[in-house]
């Protein structure tokens, strides 16, 4: 497996990957523990909500997308974590049986001025169901720079 370092990443790079089908059971389990709003945990209440049916917590959707990200491009990246997330948006609700996939695009990169072992890579992540955005955010990643011995 080839390790992807900061120097290997280019602004404009895109990837599409992952596939995860969400079940009603896991939606309920997540929501009961972390986001017990009625339209996430009670099918009858959800029918009377603006959504008309049970929907996944947005935090559950974000967690699934994070898992797909870790199992996808971050799996071979020399990642060092993240500085945060900007512009988190939930565009459409995720429903039982929906299958999520991910699209990423590198928006910006720059070397760290204070830590020469890393660079900052800002990427747009979009979670999709049937090609339509359901969630998006800009991840503010940190990626290790190629060790000197490897670049010679």
Q: Describe the biggest sheet?
A: 5 strands, antiparallel
Number of helices: 5
Whole-angstrom Rg: 18 Å
Fraction in beta strands: 35-45%
- How far apart the termini lie comes to 20 Å
Number of domains: 1
Low-confidence stretches: none
Strand order of the largest sheet: 1-3-4-5-2
CATH topology: Thiol Ester Dehydrase, Chain A
How would you portray this structure in words?
- With 152 residues, the protein is α+β, with helices and mostly antiparallel strands.
- It has a single domain (6-151), classed as Roll (Thiol Ester Dehydrase, Chain A), CATH 3.10.129.
- 25% of the residues lie in helices and 38% in strands.
- It has a five-stranded antiparallel beta sheet, with helices on one face.
- The longest helix is centred in the middle third of the chain and has 14 residues, at 58-71.
- It is elongated and about 60 Å long.
- The model has no long low-confidence stretch (mean pLDDT 94).
Attribute tags:
152 residues; alpha+beta; Thiol Ester Dehydrase, Chain A; 5 helices
TL;DR of this structure?
With 152 residues, the protein is of the alpha+beta class.
Task: List strands and helices in order, with pairings.
Blueprint: E1 14-21, H1 24-34, H2 38-41, H3 43-47, H4 58-71, E2 79-90, E3 99-111, E4 118-129, E5 132-144, H5 148-151
Antiparallel strand pairs: 1-3, 2-5, 3-4, 4-5
